[in-house]
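#structure-requests
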Amino acid sequence: MSTSATRADGRQPAQLRPITFEADIAPHATGSVLVSFGRTRVICAATVEPGVPTWMKQQKISGGWLTAEYSMLPYSTHERKARDISRGKIDGRTVEIQRLIGRSLRAVLNLEKLGANTLWVDCDVLQADGGTRTAAITGAWLAARLAVQRLIDDKRLAENPLADSVAAVSVGVFGGAELLDLAYVEDKDAEVDFNVVMTGRGQFVEVQGSGEEATFSPDQLTSLVALAQRGLREVTALQTAFLAKRLL
């Protein structure tokens, strides 16, 4: 497997795109972050509302809940993407991604410590250039962490219900090379495509992988997961550095 090719944007195969976070992009949310993975940019906003879903009350389930919504704004892609509401239904890809975001954050969230509150996480893609779901997960956790801190500061929560951080990154095989953090030009024609979600302590939350008109060997599977792990250690360090400046 080739690992020496230079990519279209000049990166090395095991190199992340430039990643940045900007806080308070949506001031009416409880916590918000604009996350950028290269040219992919996603607004992630976390809003806390009192109360829990009806099904929790009916089943007498204690604690709170977290739910996620994801959308690509019409101007986020090269050709205008119609809003789901104009089509009268949410497309399958959108449903899949917002469920993934919700699962990823609930994996590190103690719902009992959240209390009888619902944490809404909204991820809106401003610009799409590959990896929108991985950027959304990474930014959504930061937005949730900022929202939780605001509740703690306002004495609405006694302690932090987030037990760990969570982040995500893509890996794949394109042109015979194993690549980290695929941009759209790579992702659309990748022979193998993975999305990997992990906690800050190095535990897996989800590994999504498939061959696109191709197969991959057990050795390639191991190598791609290891590549994602290395990348996610970098992403987690960036999240930690960002929060160190925000949560003084």
